[in-house]
Amino acid sequence: MSFSNDVRNELARVMPEKECCCQAELSALLTSGSTVVEFEEDGYSLQVRVENAATARKIFKLFKRNGLQSTVRIGNRKRFGKTKIYEVATHFSADNLSILQELHLIEDNNNRRQFRSHLTRKTCCKRCFLRGVFLSRGFVNRPENDYHLELVFTGEKLAVHVQKLLAHFDIEARIFERKNNLVVYVKESEKIGDFLRVVGASRALLEFENVRIIKSMRNTVNRQVNCETANLAKTIDASVRQIDLINRAMKKEGWKNLPPQFKELALLRIEYPDYTLKELGELTQPPLSKSGVAYRMRRLEKMAEDIIGI
Asked: Per residue of the chain (310 residues), what is the pLDDT tens digit?
């Protein structure tokens, strides 16, 4: 099962406590999902098609909470026979038609209309609306892979509104167009974690953060290993160059005239070719700091070059 389905299954079990939150989440599920409203002689029949069984179950429960009875039918996609589609059908009579009007799915004059932002004025309603949007149109990549969360919309107004809702929770999201749809997406791992926290996916957030911490530690270790490997390579290259200069200079008579402290450092370098400058400094008499050894080694290299005649 994908991580997105794990998140949906968890969010489908989170029921809003307040009536205003219930309306906000139901509105998100209906407006941003594949919703069809058909006129009948005695009212309306509303069909919602979703791909996740848990999402369909939540829509069924939210309608039941409003005193409405729904039916759920399972079908297959025509183009993709293996993908199941869950259709929640609900009948609205003249007595309960006001529910559709409150959700802004139809106007008072029986014309269908789009979502209105007043349903998300409260912070609690904003959370529930974002939860409903993810249930119907959301996707989040498994944290072991690249970090990516997206919400797909067919209309610009709703996409921009969701972007503003995310900004309210300090979650920066961008919008791009893909196949006649608008995609609101988040790439930063911390912001994706914030989104999971905002919509109430506690277990998914815990799993996400655990993987993120492990990845961060692994990347830190890899950087340290790469840095140490690079430093070791530099030390070896410098040591090979220095030993070559020292050996070539020792064949010349001018080597005997070197000051004792430089001869000492030359002999230590030959004897301990894999030591760092700091480690060589600990062996000198008296001990030298890393910077002191580096200065003396540069002087030694210059003297050796002069003796060789480079």
From this structure: 688 888 999 998 998 888 888 888 888 888 755 454 555 566 667 777 777 788 888 888 888 887 777 778 887 766 555 577 887 877 776 666 666 666 666 554 444 445 556 778 889 999 999 999 999 888 998 888 888 999 998 888 888 999 999 999 999 999 999 888 899 999 998 999 999 999 999 999 999 888 888 888 888 888 888 888 888 788 888 888 888 888 888 887 667 777 888 888 888 888 888 888 888 889 888 888 989 888 988 988 888 888 887 7
Other C-beta atoms lying within 10 Å of the C-beta of residue 188: 13
**Residue 129 in tokens:** 């609306």
- Cα separations (Å) of 212 from 180, 189, 208, 225? 33, 8, 6, 20
Query: From the centroid of its chain, how far is CA 189?
Result: 3
* Complete domains list, the chain, with CATH: 3-200 (3.10.28.10), 229-308 (no CATH)
**This prediction's pTM:** 0.68
> Mapping DSSP to helix (H, G, I), strand (E, B) and coil, where does residue 251 land?
coil
Place of tokens 């944290």: 143
How many secondary structure helices (H) and strands (E) does the chain include?
Answer: 11, 8
Lay out the sheet containing 181-186: strands in order across: 138-140, 149-153, 181-186, 174-178
Give the pairing of strands 181-186 and 149-153: antiparallel
Q: Is-contact 85 49, C-beta < 8 A?
A: yes
Any idea which residue has 């996916």 for tokens? 201
Check: CB of residue 163 under 8 Å from CB of residue 190.
Answer: no
